[in-house]
Amino acid sequence: MGFRQLLDRVRERLREQVRNGHLTERELARRLALSQPHIHNVLKGERILTPDLADLILSFLGIDVLDLLSTEDLRRPPGRAASSGNRAATVRERSGNRMEQSR
């Protein structure tokens, strides 16, 4: 799982809390010292969910990053991407090719 997918799960967990009536955007904004429009736009995906804001949200919800992972995520060997293409390996391969070409 990539970092973006993890941030998407934070956003989705927060949406569930709002959708289920456990929390309002206004209450969350007040408690996190942010504006309600900012929270609204983060939930809609119109604003970036920064790692710092994700940490604040996780802390506020009382959950850990591990709570966002599925059993499948935990079984996957480290360094193995969920998708068929491993972007990190591709980037390393490309940068290695560039270094060889420059020699």
Span of the ends, CA to CA: 35 Å
Major sheet description: none
Shape: elongated
Assess the beta-strand content as a share of residues.
under 5%
Q: N-to-C SSE series?
A: HHHHHH
Number of strands: 0
State mean pLDDT (0 to 100 scale).
Answer: 81
Tally of distinct domains: 1
Output the structural class.
mainly alpha
Provide the gyration radius in Å.
18 Å
CATH C-level class: Mainly Alpha
Helix content: 55-70%
Low-confidence stretches: none
In short:
The protein has 103 residues and is an all-alpha fold. It is built from six helices and no strands. It has one domain: Orthogonal Bundle (434 Repressor (Amino-terminal Domain)).
Structure description:
It is a single chain. Helices cover 64% and strands 0% of the residues. The protein has one domain (3-102): Orthogonal Bundle (434 Repressor (Amino-terminal Domain)). The protein has helices at 3-19, 25-32, 36-44, 51-61, 71-75, 87-102. Helix 1 crosses helix 4 and helix 2 packs across helix 3 (36-44). By secondary structure, the protein is mostly helical.
Please describe the topology of this protein.
Elements: H1 3-19, H2 25-32, H3 36-44, H4 51-61, H5 71-75, H6 87-102
List keywords for this structure.
single chain, 103 residues, mainly alpha, 434 Repressor (Amino-terminal Domain), elongated
